Amino acid sequence: MRCFLSEEAIKNAIFQPPETTRAFFRGRAVARFSREISSIQWDEVTFQCGEIPSGVTLRQPMGALVLATILGLRGRRGRRDYAGAMRILSFLGVWVLLMCVVAGATPGAVYVVPLKGDVSDAQFVFLRRTLKAAERADASAFVLEMDTNGGAVEAAVEIMNALGRTPVPTVVYVNTRALSAGALISLAAGRIYMAPTAVMGAAAPVLEGGGDLSETMREKTVSAISAIARAAAERNGRNPDIADAFIDKRKELRVGGELIDGPDSLLTLSAQEAVREHGGKRLLADGVGASLEEVLALAGLKGSVVRVEPAGFERAALWITSLAPLLLMGGIVFGFIESKIPGFGFFGILSITCFGLFFAGHHLAGLAGWEAAALFAVGIALVVGELWLHPGTVVPGVLGVFLAVGGMVLAMADRWPGEPFWPSEGALVRPLFQFGAAMIGSVIVVAVLVRVLPRTRFYSAMVLSEVVPMGPGVEVGPAWRAVIGSTGVALTTLRPSGKASLGGHTADVVSQGEFLDAGTRLRVVRIEGSHVVVEREG
Description:
Blueprint: H1 7-15, H2 22-32, E1 37-41, E2 44-49, E3 52-57, H3 63-70, H4 79-103, E4 110-116, H5 121-136, E5 141-148, H6 153-165, E6 170-179, H7 181-187, E7 191-194, E8 199-201, H8 215-235, H9 240-247, E9 253-255, E10 258-261, E11 268-270, H10 271-275, E12 277-278, E13 281-282, E14 287-288, H11 292-299, E15 305-307, H12 314-322, H13 324-339, H14 346-364, H15 370-389, H16 395-412, H17 425-452, H18 457-462, E16 487-490, E17 497-502, E18 505-511, E19 521-528, E20 531-536
Parallel strand pairs: 4-5, 4-15, 5-6, 6-7, 6-8, 7-14, 18-20
Antiparallel strand pairs: 1-2, 2-3, 8-11, 9-10, 12-13, 16-17, 16-19, 17-18, 19-20
Helix pairs in contact: 3-4, 5-6, 5-12, 6-7, 6-8, 8-9, 12-14, 13-14, 13-17, 15-16, 16-17
């Protein structure tokens, strides 16, 4: 057998690998990040942050060079490539650790949210906000722990739509009732688990007080809800006939020729009935668990659990979103009144309060993130700068108006994570209508205030009068007037206007187009109204 490498070369390759090899990169990574590294493979170094593994893949033998090249920082070959790669690796490690702290919940976490009591619009507001937060946090699952006798059909449909549009895997744990609207919501989840004593079903629509609908109204309502429920069941691989049997007591449910529920009764399933197999497939539920921990184990969800409870502001947020045009109108009108009064005071605070409630309410309602409020704040800052700091520049003011309007409209649009920053046309219909109503109302109120406000005692008390009342005064001698031919000296540089001393009096003068330095001797050549025209003397 021939030996192509000397023993010394082999030792150097093992203990002192070249800087452009994977071995050298792995060794340096272990030396610097020994606590953060969870595993090392031939072509990958994996960092651990809580529950999250974050791997750096070495796709070519020149691992450090490849990493630097991928990140666009490759310089000269050799040590500079390795040093740049290690700096990038350090940054990535710190960034991953910081993101774990800032996010509050690590990616891969399981969000557990209660749905207890009546299904209502406030429940929908809470679930929508939490579902978006789970999606932004890259959650591994969204678990809805349910115990409800039902509630508003409209709110249930909104929750079903929200569960259907999110990419986060959804799970419903029925503990212990999912009746009426709760049963409909359960059909929209990807998986269903039930407590041993749980029941689900009986989703026929009724009046708010529990009475029956009229025949015509019942037919229309049952038809519409059945279509929505069937679509949700089919989307999640369930028998759509179960949805019909939940809603319409005239429907019977047969599976494989076996009668599960006959006509003249609404289908209601116990946990044991829901998991019973028919034709090799469970009827509805995926399993039975006595506790949430057991359900998570059955579902194979191993991420850290993040429990989210209602903040208590959902009802207030619902009212705020309903009153959005009035809040916008209040912010605009109070801001207008504040602009007519010297200083900053009560109406300025009211304007800020209205806009603050508007943005905070839509954030709590799960409609807008704080980016809409930031966009609005930047726009207002540009408009204020245009009016008071650099008037006449136009462009910042126009840009500010567009940003402020965009922030208000964006705050009212139902935008989900992963969607384009600017919502689609369909999502903008309601926000534009509300904004238009607010603007029309504001214009009307401002037009009335322009005519009425100056005549009120309140306005007179807040603003200085244009006429100064007569009172004791002092005698003033005759005003000084410049005379053609009189001479003097420029007190400031004339560009071409400035100040000059003429006959012992300071006057505003203007040259005949030339720039004259301070101290230049001047002579008055003509007087045009209030303009004193001068030229260089001699």
